[in-house]
């Protein structure tokens, strides 16, 4: 089933270990996902992005791959996977795989062979001698640890890992690595997957290993962000693999600037179809995600406007498995969970670009009520805590940083019902279930016509069928401290999307009160003059 990028796609992210457990081991699995396909079909999405399901020692929950052509035994078998693809297809749903090719696991056969002295495989990785008794260079690491670890028993050789020690970076200067990856991609495409979400794809190719300019976030990154070598690789993968299958590719592009994004997904789609940018995710921090402040709606809106007006096509996402739940990031969303989540549904579905929904977002899941570091599983939270301790940051402050910023906030088990463990597992969940599951769960939402889930459903349906939402131009109308308003315009039709991004009612300027026809809104009643707390309204210029 060829399934190239289409403008009406709505993509749902599944983080397999947290979605649905079928065998009581406390970890979600593929049969669990299959059992929920009807739910996803009813939700109205047409594509699933599956976070990694490959064999992995799980140092970074599957983003450390030990075998690219095998399914993690805890998640099921290859037969289960094939069944998932087939069952999804019957429901008109395509599967997008997570392609993690900046690094492998240190337990991957390639790294093991390299350690055993095989020269061929040694050249798959980035191994260097230390300089002047120190490390090969001064680079930083995404998990705030040292990016160089001793290679095997060697006294003076190190391998590069921009993430955890168990995630050695691949050497993309070696053409054999490219050949391996082409082969891996074909393997999955032949199984019928429709494309890839490409993990940290803009950092693959390290231009040089020279020292970098000292900076707070990732010293050395100027040597590997969006390098010409990376563009070459992406062009080759598009031409020689993706095009052959008419497949789709979205890149996760850390630190990406607008110009870099334009180069990675220009209109001829010679590299990627679209990228995940990060700028809008910084609307509640001071430059580093660990140093959070109150979320600034204006900062968020400004960033959205900038990207919407500069790129032809964006990814519209507010949550994923690396991000805290968005509604918890609105400082004043307490008491407005329903309103804030439905407003985010309205926003996500009316911006121009491909909407991404992270599992649980459609029922308004919130951040975890974690009480101590022991309850947190994510490796990054632990390494950052160590680094902060090393810097002398007091325990209480460290905990505050971690509690708000931990990626586990977005990884808590899916809340299906008010049964034990929210219906996620009959066993002991790998990560604690959020304490609000009795109030916030799918079963309860399904009973509530005015609830969060039904609003997402409605907005997804609208997004998939209304040509103006699918392809209309984006025209900003108002960015204030509280109101975000923009038009979508196609031919003769004009739609106006309005969001109150705060928990206080706001008066609308006159020109926004005059639109006659309401297509959707998260308040059943209301006045034209005001937007209620977190109110979303979609208006049309004329009802004809
Ligand atoms: O999570 C982050 C900040 O919030 C990022 O630094 C994150 O590590 C970065 O966005 C890259 O993410 C991707 O690659 C990582 C993996 O841990 C993440 O889960 C994945 O989304 C390494 O493979």
Structural notes for this entry:
It is a single chain. The protein has helices spanning 30-35, 37-43, 78-90, 109-115, 119-122, 175-190, 228-245, 258-264, 297-310, 326-329, 337-350, 379-390, 395-405, 442-446, 452-465, 467-471, and strands spanning 11-14, 47-50, 54-55, 67-71, 94-99, 127-129, 148-150, 157-160, 195-198, 248-252, 274-276, 315-316, 354-358, 473-479, 483-490, 493-500, 506-507, 517-521, 530-531, 536-540. By secondary structure, it is an alpha/beta fold. The chain is built from 16 helices and 20 strands. The longest helix is centred in the middle third of the chain and has 18 residues, at 228-245. It is globular, with a radius of gyration of 23 Å. The structure holds 6-O-alpha-D-glucopyranosyl-D-fructose.
Brief summary of the model shown:
It is built from 16 helices and 20 strands. By secondary structure, the chain is of the alpha/beta class.
Fill in the keyword field for this structure.
544 residues; 20 strands; single chain; binds 6-O-alpha-D-glucopyranosyl-D-fructose; 16 helices; globular; alpha/beta; five-stranded antiparallel β-sheet
């Amino acid at each position: 089933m060829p399934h190239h990028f289409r403008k009406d796609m709505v993509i749902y992210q599944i983080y397999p270990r947290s979605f649905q457990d079928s065998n009581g081991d406390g970890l979600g699995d593929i049969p669990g996902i299959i059992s929920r396909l009807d739910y996803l079909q009813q939700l109205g999405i047409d594509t699933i992005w599956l976070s990694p399901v490959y064999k992995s020692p799980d140092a970074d929950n599957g983003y450390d791959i030990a075998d690219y052509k095998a399914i993690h035994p805890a998640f099921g078998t290859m037969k289960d996977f094939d069944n998932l693809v087939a069952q999804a297809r019957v429901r008109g749903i395509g599967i997008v795989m997570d392609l993690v090719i900046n690094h492998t696991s240190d337990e991957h056969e390639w790294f093991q062979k390299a350690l055993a002295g095989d020269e061929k495989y040694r050249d798959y990785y980035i191994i260097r001698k230390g300089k002047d008794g120190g490390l090969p260079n001064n680079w930083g690491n995404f998990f705030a640890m040292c990016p160089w670890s001793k290679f095997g028993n060697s006294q003076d050789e190190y391998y590069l890992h921009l993430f955890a020690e168990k995630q050695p970076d691949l050497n993309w200067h070696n053409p054999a690595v490219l050949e391996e990856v082409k082969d891996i991609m074909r393997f999955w495409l032949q199984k019928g997957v429709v494309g890839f979400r490409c993990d940290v794809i803009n950092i693959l190719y390290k231009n040089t290993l020279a020292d970098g300019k000292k900076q707070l976030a990732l010293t050395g990154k100027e040597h590997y962000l969006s390098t010409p070598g990376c563009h070459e690789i992406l062009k080759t993968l598009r031409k020689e693999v993706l095009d052959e299958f008419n497949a789709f590719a979205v890149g996760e592009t850390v630190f990406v600037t607008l110009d870099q994004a334009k180069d990675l997904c220009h209109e001829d789609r010679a590299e990627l179809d679209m990228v995940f940018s990060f700028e809008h995710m910084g609307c509640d921090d001071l430059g580093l995600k660990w140093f959070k402040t109150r979320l600034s709606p204006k900062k968020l809106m400004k960033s959205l406007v900038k990207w919407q007006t500069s790129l032809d096509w964006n990814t519209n996402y507010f949550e994923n498995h690396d991000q805290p739940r968005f509604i918890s990031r609105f400082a004043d969303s307490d008491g407005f969970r329903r309103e804030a989540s439905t407003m985010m549904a309205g926003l996500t579905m009316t911006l121009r670009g491909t909407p991404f929904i992270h599992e649980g977002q459609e029922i308004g899941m919130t951040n975890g009520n974690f009480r101590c570091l022991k309850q947190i599983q994510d490796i990054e939270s632990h390494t950052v805590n160590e680094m902060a301790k090393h810097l002398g940051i007091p325990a209480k402050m460290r905990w505050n940083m971690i509690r708000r910023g931990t990626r586990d906030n977005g990884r808590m088990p899916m809340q299906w019902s008010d049964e034990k463990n929210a219906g996620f597992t009959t066993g002991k969940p790998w990560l604690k279930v959020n304490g609000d599951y009795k109030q916030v769960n799918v079963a309860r939402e399904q009973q509530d016509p005015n609830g969060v889930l039904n609003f997402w459903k409605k907005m997804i349906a609208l997004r998939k069928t209304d040509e103006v939402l699918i392809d209309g131009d984006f025209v900003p109308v108002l960015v204030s401290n509280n109101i975000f308003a923009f038009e979508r315009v196609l031919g003769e039709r004009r739609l106006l999307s309005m969001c109150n991004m705060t928990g206080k009612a706001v008066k609308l300027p006159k020109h926004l009160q005059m639109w006659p026809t309401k297509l959707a809104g998260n308040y059943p009643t209301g006045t034209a003059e005001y937007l209620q707390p977190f109110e979303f309204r979609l208006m049309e210029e004329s009802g004809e």
